Amino acid sequence: MAHINDPELIRTLMTTPGRWAVVGLSNNPQRAAFEVARFLQRDLGQEIIPVSLKGDDVHGAQGYKTLAAVPGSIDVVDCFVNSSRVGEVVDQAIAVGAKAVWLQLGVADEAAAARATAAGLGVVMDTCPKIEAGPLGL
User: Fold this and answer.
1) Residue span of the structural domain in which 46 resides
2) Number of domains the chain is built from
3) Rounded to 5, what percent of the chain is helix, strand, coil?
4) For the segment 96-131, what is each residue's pLDDT rounded down to a tens digit?
């Protein structure tokens, strides 16, 4: 069965202060992750945690190379990776005890979404917080 995003989950994730691990976030301002992370941090008041192969610090936040290296709890794992690789990130999110995964616009993996849901994580797929903010009045 195809995943359908829950508008209440989207609202809750975006309006409840939390720690968002942004996977694929680097210091490249040409990448969508750079601007979306700034939006999460500046406009929504979320704590961002950059996660990338280089472990870059971004927007004043310390970066890490893996989700497993992030100290403390993670509320949302925001996935800026190709659909063919997102299943691995979702499995890591499950392993570290994240509360939710957010697969960005254009990123979809029904099997990964089903695994996350079965593990008790909230799942948002194929949309962006900046897109969802307008209809929510954020």
Assistant:
1) 7-133
2) 1
3) 40, 20, 40
4) 999 999 999 999 999 999 999 999 999 999 999 999
